[in-house]
Every structure is written in structure tokens, then in C-alpha cells.
Amino acid sequence: MSSKQQCVKLNDGNFIPALGFGTYKPEEVNENKPLEAIHLALEAGFRHIDTAYVYQTENHVGQAIRSKIAAGLVKREDIFLTTKLWCTFHRPELVRSNLEKSLKNLQLDYADLYLIHYPVQMKPGEDLFPEDEHGKTLFDTVDICATWEAMEKCKDAGLVKSIGVSNFNSRQLEKILNKPGLKYKPVCNQVECHLYLNQRKLLNYCKSKDIVLVAYCALGSQRPKRWVDPSSPVLLNDPILCDMAKKHKRSPAQIALRYHLQRGIVVLAQSYKENEIKENIQVFEFELPSEDMKILDSLDRNLRYAPAPFGEGHPEYPFSDEF
């Protein structure tokens, strides 16, 4: 990791900022909140913005970026923008069209990173979560390797600088890595990763393959009613984490983010509050001693906030494997 730029080098030679700003919007959050938050994040110094077609916040992301470019705060090349291929576009002939829709929403010429959002394929069409009359997900069957070849073509076409995956387990990564005629390795695997799910085995596997692990839900979860069990513990209220935050005169969120950075993980943080956004970007100002890292390691309880219930029952549902 380059301390000067606080960036991590990807296996294709590009660099990704080690701290990113997430833009997922739960249904219960006000429509304009993401736009306000992205403006605040860019003003605070975030230069890595993570979005996805399915979040339906790409237009807000693009609007905020373009307004900051127009104001002279940033140039397009200063921004690292990630978006993701949704599960209803896995068929090779649909991959580029989904990226082009995202770029149109963003009103940008290219994305810095494009990820296969999940290894699960769903029936193509207008519905983001297609279901039958019984509320059961309508799945599709597409070879992950064929989808990956279409991703490679998007990179060759200059629509995206780097390509990777999200929510893949090690077996699914192996499929791509062992694909005959592989042109580009995935540069990263973006997965749920936090103190209660520290992904030790998957992290070690990814490091061995020169694939960067990117952590979402790093501060726990925004707990959207549709996806997260309301009885699950609130990560940032963990007493051990809170005690450590007091000891270092930092917020629990700063400690939780710093923990991942020191493990070589690129970490995404999300908040709608200005003071928290400003706090979160201060994670490069301190370091945790090894004994504190060990204590934080011990908090792992294999707890997943976002088990993606819509994908359960699909042969490529990723969370049935150990890692």
C-alpha cells in the first residue's frame, strides 16, 4: 500500500484508493439522502465511490461527481468509480448493455472498476428481482466463465479500466482463474467483511492469487428491513470495540475501518452524517498495535448481515461454501 496516495495496486497495474464511500440506499432512506452524502464525501476527500446498477443511486453518484468537476474540486481522473453488473444481465450478450446503462445513469464515459455483483444468475428482464406467483426467485443458468469473457470485452472496449467480482467464494474464483484462454484475472473480490465476519480464509486465498479483498458492511450494516435480521447485534455497539475506541480516542467506526486497512483490505464506509463522513476519512492518521489487532481478530463470530436470500436455492449461491 502506498502511504502517500493511500492506494493499493491491483494485479492489472491500476491503483484503487484503500478507502471508498458506499452508496447503497435502503428503501426506508429518503430519496435525496444519497446525493447529499456523496457531495459531503467528495468534499471531505473521498475519491473512491462505490455504486451498483441495482442500488439505483448511479444517477446521484454521477450528478455529484459532475458537479464537483464543474466546480473545479476534482478532475475525472482523480475519482475511482466502481459499479456492478446485476444478476439479470449475466448472459454474455447482455453484459455490455448493463454497463452502458450504468454509464448512461452516471453520465460518464468509463468506470474505473466493473464487478460481477453476485455469481447468481436471474431471469433477464425489467424486474431487478424477478419472482414467480409464489414469490420464488426466477433463476437463470449461465456459465460464469462466459459472463467473465464478456466482462473482458468491456475492458478491451475501454468502457472500464479494471474488472473484478463481488460475493464470490474461492471455488467460484477458481473457475475463472482456471478458465482456458483467460485474458484478465479478477482484480478484486468485494465481499461482506467486518469484525463479526473477518473472512480470514477468503482473505488468505485472495492474497495468494494477487486478488484484492474489498470489504462492504465494514461497519456492520445499515440494517435495511428487507434484507437484515433486526435481531442481529449492532457491530458499532460492541463493548470491546467501544473500549478500544475510548483507549485510542477514536470512534468505534474508525477502529473498525483501521482494522481492515492494516490487514491489506480495501474498505468501504458509508454514512449519511457529515461528522461521521469526516471522521471516517481520518483512518490514515493512526495505527493499531498488533496486540489490539489480535483482540479485534477474536471478535469474529461468522455472522453475516447480508445473506442474499434472493439467491438461496441457486446452484451458484455463494455462501454455502466455507469460504
Automatic annotation (TrEMBL):
<dbReference type="GO" id="GO:0001758">
    <property type="term" value="F:retinal dehydrogenase (NAD+) activity"/>
</dbReference>
<dbReference type="GO" id="GO:0005829">
    <property type="term" value="C:cytosol"/>
</dbReference>
<dbReference type="InterPro" id="IPR036812">
    <property type="entry name" value="NAD(P)_OxRdtase_dom_sf"/>
</dbReference>
<dbReference type="GO" id="GO:0031406">
    <property type="term" value="F:carboxylic acid binding"/>
</dbReference>
<feature type="binding site">
    <location>
        <position position="117"/>
    </location>
    <ligand>
        <name>substrate</name>
    </ligand>
</feature>
<dbReference type="GO" id="GO:0045703">
    <property type="term" value="F:ketoreductase activity"/>
</dbReference>
<dbReference type="GO" id="GO:0047023">
    <property type="term" value="F:androsterone dehydrogenase [NAD(P)+] activity"/>
</dbReference>
<dbReference type="GO" id="GO:0006693">
    <property type="term" value="P:prostaglandin metabolic process"/>
</dbReference>
<dbReference type="GO" id="GO:0032052">
    <property type="term" value="F:bile acid binding"/>
</dbReference>
<dbReference type="GO" id="GO:0005737">
    <property type="term" value="C:cytoplasm"/>
</dbReference>
<dbReference type="GO" id="GO:0044598">
    <property type="term" value="P:doxorubicin metabolic process"/>
</dbReference>
<dbReference type="InterPro" id="IPR018170">
    <property type="entry name" value="Aldo/ket_reductase_CS"/>
</dbReference>
<dbReference type="GO" id="GO:0047086">
    <property type="term" value="F:ketosteroid monooxygenase activity"/>
</dbReference>
<keyword id="KW-0560">Oxidoreductase</keyword>
<feature type="domain" description="NADP-dependent oxidoreductase">
    <location>
        <begin position="19"/>
        <end position="300"/>
    </location>
</feature>
<dbReference type="GO" id="GO:0016655">
    <property type="term" value="F:oxidoreductase activity, acting on NAD(P)H, quinone or similar compound as acceptor"/>
</dbReference>
<protein>
    <submittedName>
        <fullName>Aldo-keto reductase family 1, member C19</fullName>
    </submittedName>
</protein>
<dbReference type="InterPro" id="IPR020471">
    <property type="entry name" value="AKR"/>
</dbReference>
<dbReference type="GO" id="GO:0140169">
    <property type="term" value="F:3-alpha-hydroxysteroid 3-dehydrogenase [NAD(P)+] activity"/>
</dbReference>
<dbReference type="GO" id="GO:0045550">
    <property type="term" value="F:geranylgeranyl reductase activity"/>
</dbReference>
<keyword id="KW-0521">NADP</keyword>
<dbReference type="GO" id="GO:0042448">
    <property type="term" value="P:progesterone metabolic process"/>
</dbReference>
<dbReference type="GO" id="GO:0036131">
    <property type="term" value="F:prostaglandin D2 11-ketoreductase activity"/>
</dbReference>
<dbReference type="GO" id="GO:0005634">
    <property type="term" value="C:nucleus"/>
</dbReference>
<dbReference type="GO" id="GO:0047787">
    <property type="term" value="F:Delta4-3-oxosteroid 5beta-reductase activity"/>
</dbReference>
<dbReference type="GO" id="GO:0004032">
    <property type="term" value="F:aldose reductase (NADPH) activity"/>
</dbReference>
<dbReference type="GO" id="GO:0047020">
    <property type="term" value="F:15-hydroxyprostaglandin-D dehydrogenase (NADP+) activity"/>
</dbReference>
<dbReference type="GO" id="GO:0044597">
    <property type="term" value="P:daunorubicin metabolic process"/>
</dbReference>
<dbReference type="InterPro" id="IPR044482">
    <property type="entry name" value="AKR1C"/>
</dbReference>
<dbReference type="GO" id="GO:0047743">
    <property type="term" value="F:chlordecone reductase activity"/>
</dbReference>
<dbReference type="GO" id="GO:0047115">
    <property type="term" value="F:trans-1,2-dihydrobenzene-1,2-diol dehydrogenase activity"/>
</dbReference>
<dbReference type="GO" id="GO:0036130">
    <property type="term" value="F:prostaglandin H2 endoperoxidase reductase activity"/>
</dbReference>
<dbReference type="GO" id="GO:0008106">
    <property type="term" value="F:alcohol dehydrogenase (NADP+) activity"/>
</dbReference>
<feature type="active site" description="Proton donor">
    <location>
        <position position="55"/>
    </location>
</feature>
<comment type="similarity">
    <text>Belongs to the aldo/keto reductase family.</text>
</comment>
<feature type="site" description="Lowers pKa of active site Tyr">
    <location>
        <position position="84"/>
    </location>
</feature>
<dbReference type="GO" id="GO:0004745">
    <property type="term" value="F:all-trans-retinol dehydrogenase (NAD+) activity"/>
</dbReference>
<dbReference type="Pfam" id="PF00248">
    <property type="entry name" value="Aldo_ket_red"/>
</dbReference>
<dbReference type="InterPro" id="IPR023210">
    <property type="entry name" value="NADP_OxRdtase_dom"/>
</dbReference>
